[in-house]
Design goal:
226 residues, alpha/beta, 8-stranded mixed beta sheet, 8 helices
């Protein structure tokens, strides 16, 4: 099995295939844990099975790569069953949404946010990049509407809030179709639960207050002079 198999692998036996996405989703796999659409899609196309089980524990990554994996899974004739095994964050939500059944572990978390882009250049370049990010966010929202039955307004609000969802919330919104108890051993399960609780209990960011004006008599004299 290839070097990155502990993070990403496709296994096939007895009419079923199992895919593990346990790394970052990237255009070019450079690190041992990276998952690229090009390598995964070729293997998905070669799967001869009636069911494909996709296990996901990923912080996400490239949205275009995630969309390609999502589309490859949707186009396969097999029944797709996806599992949220840990963090299903950012772009990793799209492979998860490809499931005909979407099963959330009781110790899993789901993170939504708008498309993030880096940009540099003149003001018009930055404005164009902002418009591009808005367009890609709108495209991504369609997957939540089509697969989970969520309203576009709800998805957009969660993205703008940069929301972490519990398994129960994922089920309520339709992102997940069922919840199963985590099968980890007790010690690992307790540690995982503690991490999830910390993530889901993060306080909302408060707007930063304006810095106080220093009590400087020279500044006050300057202010009076203008």
């Amino acid at each position: 099995m290839e070097k990155s198999s502990r993070y990403y692998a496709v296994q096939q036996a007895d009419g079923q295939a199992v895919i593990y996405i346990f790394g970052d989703i990237v255009p070019i796999a450079l690190m041992g844990g990276d998952v690229s659409a090009s390598s995964m899609i070729r293997q998905i196309e070669d799967i001869d099975a009636s069911e494909i089980h996709v296990h996901i524990d990923s912080y996400g990554g490239s949205v275009s790569e995630a969309w390609a994996i999502y589309n490859a899974l949707l186009q396969h004739p097999a029944k797709i069953i996806t599992y949220g095994d840990g963090f299903v964050a950012s772009a990793a939500l799209y492979p998860f949404l490809a499931g005909d059944e979407r099963i959330a572990s009781s110790l899993s978390a789901y993170f939504l946010h708008p498309v993030w882009l880096g940009a540099e250049g003149y003001a018009e370049d930055l404005r164009a990049a902002a418009e591009e990010a808005d367009i890609m966010t709108d495209i991504g929202i369609n997957a939540f509407v089509d697969r989970a039955g969520m309203s576009a307004e709800t998805v957009r609000a969660l993205m703008e809030e940069e929301a972490w969802l519990t398994p129960a919330q994922a089920l309520e919104y339709g992102l997940a179709t069922s919840i199963v108890q985590d099968a980890a051993i007790p010690v690992a399960q307790a540690a995982k639960k503690a991490i999830m609780q910390k993530v889901l209990a993060l306080p909302k960011a408060e707007p930063r207050a304006e810095p106080p004006v220093p009590n400087n008599p020279i500044l006050k004299l300057f202010e009076r002079s203008i």
